[in-house]
Design a protein that fits this description.
Length: 458
């Protein structure tokens, strides 16, 4: 055996032995603590919320370890603004409760504590260990999905059970240093989304991690590490096992937090969109002139813009757009069967929503609004007499009008109607009356014309 080969063999053996005896390897990512002192990182107490700081200090003064962890550090290190701050500690939920008067234990899959400071709520969780899939006997579904994981552990174990390296960085309030067990800082600097541990196992444990991978890549314009991306093609079907209510939450995070357009691109690139919107994906597969794609993209852009301007948005609008091409297609069958339009829409909506709800559960309160917006699409061209005025007073008018504009932009309908409504909304009472009159005249003329032609032809 040549020396190089021998050296390689010895190295492999040593690695295996270290893994076996240290009990702290994640397969792909070796666990090695690197402490990054305060003067070598930009996380400043100035950028940490008042509530989070009070929580950290409260725990610290009570003799516990206290760290900021997860998404907030990722955001702080990539110039993002954290939307909330999560704290991790070695104190148990009961011990945390004793430190903070205004706190309560929330029991979901595992217990965490919500600590309240005025309007701010800080989520505090006790270090947790992930179960070893082979040894722990932790409850799993047939596909390998983790059903419960509520065993306390060390900070190192807590890091390993997190999803991506970029979400596993800790900020210690005791010395203001970052604690990096998995090369998180480097992946953040390099712009890499890397699953911790063996990717296939981690996706099987929780298939939602595939969606999170797509979302973080979109949010920060990062790349997926090749070994993190590769298994998705084969494992994406596992998303079918995820409860539809959870997928609804994830869908909102993907498309309703200000970077929906980029999430859409990632979801399509990874071929994941069809796992959330199977019916929509079918229409996209058949979208020869690209109109459906344009419609969906412009809705995403529109929603992102509104969110960035702090304007209100409703999931009903976006879900309404996603399913609109399916509704149009489904309606056709009923129309061909001589059903009137309103009835055809009603039937189609029932069928399409029922199928969608099997995958992503849309709460009733949004489904009701979606149906309203869809129905208004067929009413917005009926503007004669006092119809326009009545439509304007409809509580979904604004959403339906925005919806119409997008359809027009995408080339689904002839241009004109949207512009008419834009002018109508800006017009005063007199002008509005005129607009409606002109309309009535033109429409009557047309009908008259047809009538005149008829006898001539016979
Ligand atoms: P955002 O709040 O922007 O969605 P986040 O990273 O804060 O991003 P959360 O869902 O708030 O996401 O989760 C907080 C932390 O919990 C994550 O940073 C990650 O460390 C861990 N985590 C969340 N979901 C999972 C998961 N499915 N598997 C493993 N760890 C997870
Ligand atoms: Mg978060």
């Amino acid at each position: 055996m040549n020396p190089a080969k021998l050296a390689e063999l010895i190295r492999d053996w040593l690695q295996l032995l270290t893994r076996l005896f240290s009990g702290s390897s994640t397969g792909e990512n070796p666990v090695k603590l690197r402490v990054i002192p305060r003067d070598q990182h930009p996380v400043s107490r100035k950028n940490i919320s008042r509530g989070a700081l009070k929580t950290l200090y409260g725990l610290h003064e009570a003799g516990y370890e206290a760290y900021l962890v997860g998404g907030c550090l990722r955001d702080l290190l990539t110039d993002g603004q954290p939307k909330d701050f999560d704290v991790a500690t070695d104190a148990t939920p009961e011990e945390i409760r004793e430190v903070f008067r205004r706190s309560r234990i929330i029991g979901r899959r595992f217990q965490i504590v919500h600590v309240r400071f005025g309007p701010e709520v800080v989520e505090v969780s006790t270090f947790r260990a992930a179960h070893d899939p082979d040894e722990s006997g932790a409850p799993r579904s047939e596909g390998g999905m983790l059903l419960r994981d509520n065993v306390y552990g060390t900070i190192e174990e807590d890091a390993i059970r997190r999803d991506f390296t970029i979400n596993a960085l800790y900020y210690n309030i005791a010395d203001f240093a970052l604690y990096d067990f998995l090369g998180s800082r480097k992946d953040l600097d390099d712009g890499i989304i890397r699953l911790i541990g063996d990717p296939e196992t981690r996706y099987r444990e929780d298939p939602v991690r595939m969606l999170r991978a797509a979302r973080f890549a979109a949010k920060m314009d990062f790349d997926l590490a090749p070994e993190t991306e590769a298994p998705i093609a084969e494992l994406k079907e596992l998303l079918r096992d995820v409860p539809p209510a959870r997928l609804f939450d994830e869908t909102l995070k993907l498309f309703m937090t200000g970077y929906g357009r980029r999430c859409l691109d990632q979801m399509r690139r990874l071929e994941l969109l069809g796992m959330l919107f199977p019916q929509t994906q079918e229409t996209l597969d058949d979208d020869r002139d690209g109109r459906i794609q344009t419609l969906i993209e412009s809705a995403m852009i529109n929603t992102d813009r509104r969110l960035n301007q702090n304007k209100p948005v409703t999931p009903a609008f976006l879900f309404g757009i996603m399913l609109w091409p399916v509704i149009v297609e489904n309606m056709q069958a009923w129309l061909d069967d001589d059903h009137p339009k309103v009835q055809a829409l009603h039937q189609a909506a029932g069928e399409v929503l029922a199928e969608q709800n099997q995958v992503v559960a849309i709460p009733k309160r949004f489904a009701v609004v979606m149906r309203d917006i869809w129905e208004l699409q067929f009413r917005l061209d009926k503007r004669k007499g006092n119809q326009a005025e009545r439509l304007l007073e409809h509580r979904r008018f604004r959403a339906a009008y925005d919806f119409l504009l997008l359809r027009e932009q995408a080339g689904e309908i002839e241009p004109g109607l949207g512009e008419w409504w834009t002018q109508y909304q800006n017009a005063d009472e007199n002008e509005r009356r005129q607009m409606v009159q002109q309309l009535g005249g033109a429409q009557r003329k047309k009908r008259g014309g047809r009538k005149r032609r008829k006898p001539a032809a016979s």
